[in-house]
C-alpha cells in the first residue's frame, strides 16, 4: 500500500542556492499527519547551527534578568531545558479562514535563529512582506500548505510553482490584510506592508469622528459572545460548543481559541487545550494567556518540563504574573536530602 504524501518547499537563506521542492511520506497514524512535518523540521533545525556555550549562557542570563525577583522561583535545570529546547516558529502567511476554504499556508522557521546568529533570508522576508507580514526571517525556512477546519486536518501540496508573489494564495493573503484594516486595525497590530497609508488614513479619520461608529457582530463574534455567556453561567459544554462554532466560522479568532482552551482545561480535556494554545501562539507568539493555558494543559498531560518552559516565558513577558510565579514554585523539584 502506498502511503499518502505531500509536497513542501525548502527556501535556503543562501541566495546562491535554489529553492527546492520536497516530498514527505506521512507515517501511519491519524495524529502523524499533524506532527510529521514539525518533527522533521525540529531535527533539521537542530542540525543546522548550534548554540554556543556562550550563547546559551547569555540566553539564560537574559531570561533571569527579565524574570527579575521571580528568578529565584525557577530551577536551574528548568532554565537549561528552556535554553536548549529546539522549537519551530510558525508564521501564518495565509490564515486558514472560512473565506479561503480553510486552506492556509505557513512558513516554518528556526526559533533560535537569532541566538545562532543565522544569516538573514531575503527571499523569505520578501514573500512574507508580499503577504502583509513585516518580519525579519533568519536561516533556512520551509513553506507548506494545510487544510484545517477544526474538524479535519490535512496536509496539502505546496510546490515550487506556488512560490511566486503573483500566486493566487498570495493575493488571498493580501485580501485578508485589507479586510482586517477595513474593519479597523487593532491597537496592538503591526502596520503591514502596502497598508501603511491605509492605517494612517483610518487613524486620522477616526480622530475626526463626532459620533461613535457601531459595528455589527460577525457570525463568528456572535458565537464567541454566546460562549462567553455560557461560561459565565457555568455551562461548560455549551461554552465549548459556542467557541467551536466561532472557530469554524473564523479559525483565526484567537480570543475564541484562548477561551476554548480554558474551557477544555476546566473539563480536563488537556490535549485539546494544548492544541488551542498552540493555535493562538502560532498567530500571537507573545500571548501570555495562551502561554499560561498551554502550560496548564501540559501540566495536566504530565509534562512538567514543557509546562515550566511556558510559565517561564510568561514571566519573561509579564514579570508580575502571579499565576506563572505560583506555578513555577509548584513545579520546582524538591530539594535532594543531604547525605550524612
TrEMBL record:
TPR repeats lie at residues 220-253. Gene3D superfamilies: Tetratricopeptide repeat domain. Residues 180-213 are annotated as: Disordered. Coiled coil: none annotated. InterPro entries: RPAP3, TPR-like_helical_dom_sf, TPR_rpt. PROSITE patterns: TPR. The keyword GTP-binding does not apply. Keywords: TPR repeat. This is Uncharacterized protein. It comes from Dunaliella salina (Green alga).
Amino acid at each position: 500500500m502506498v502511503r499518502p504524501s505531500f509536497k513542501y518547499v525548502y527556501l535556503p537563506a543562501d541566495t546562491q542556492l535554489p529553492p527546492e521542492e520536497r516530498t514527505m511520506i506521512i507515517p501511519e497514524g491519524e495524529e502523524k499527519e499533524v506532527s510529521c512535518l514539525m518533527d522533521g523540521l525540529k531535527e533539521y533545525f537542530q542540525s543546522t547551527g548550534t548554540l554556543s556555550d556562550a550563547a546559551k549562557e547569555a540566553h539564560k542570563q537574559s531570561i533571569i534578568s527579565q524574570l527579575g525577583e521571580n528568578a529565584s522561583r525557577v530551577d536551574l535545570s528548568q532554565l537549561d531545558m528552556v535554553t536548549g529546547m529546539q522549537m519551530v516558529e510558525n508564521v501564518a502567511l495565509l490564515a486558514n479562514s472560512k473565506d479561503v476554504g480553510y486552506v492556509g499556508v505557513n512558513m516554518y522557521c528556526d526559533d533560535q535563529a537569532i541566538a545562532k546568529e543565522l544569516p538573514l533570508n531575503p527571499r523569505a522576508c520578501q514573500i512574507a512582506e508580499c503577504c502583509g507580514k513585516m518580519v525579519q526571517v533568519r536561516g533556512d525556512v520551509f513553506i507548506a500548505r494545510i487544510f484545517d477546519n477544526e474538524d479535519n486536518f490535512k496536509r496539502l501540496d505546496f510546490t515550487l510553482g506556488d512560490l511566486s508573489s503573483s500566486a493566487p494564495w498570495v493575493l488571498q493573503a493580501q485580501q485578508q490584510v485589507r479586510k482586517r484594516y477595513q474593519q479597523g486595525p487593532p491597537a496592538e497590530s503591526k502596520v503591514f506592508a502596502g497598508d501603511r497609508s491605509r492605517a494612517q488614513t483610518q487613524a486620522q479619520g477616526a480622530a475626526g469622528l463626532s459620533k461613535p461608529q457601531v459595528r455589527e457582530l460577525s457570525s463568528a463574534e456572535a458565537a464567541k459572545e454566546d460562549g462567553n455567556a455560557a461560561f459565565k453561567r457555568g455551562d461548560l459544554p455549551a461554552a465549548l460548543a459556542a467557541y467551536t462554532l466561532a472557530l469554524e466560522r473564523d479559525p483565526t479568532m484567537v480570543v475564541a481559541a484562548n477561551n476554548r482552551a480554558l474551557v477544555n482545561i476546566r473539563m480536563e480535556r488537556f490535549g485539546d487545550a494544548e492544541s488551542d494554545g498552540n493555535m493562538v501562539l502560532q498567530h500571537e507568539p507573545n500571548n501570555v494567556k495562551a502561554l499560561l493555558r498551554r502550560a496548564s494543559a501540559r501540566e495536566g498531560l504530565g509534562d512538567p518540563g514543557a509546562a515550566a518552559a511556558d510559565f517561564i516565558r510568561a514571566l519573561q513577558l509579564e514579570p508580575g504574573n502571579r499565576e506563572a510565579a505560583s506555578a513555577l514554585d509548584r513545579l520546582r523539584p524538591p530539594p535532594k536530602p543531604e547525605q550524612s
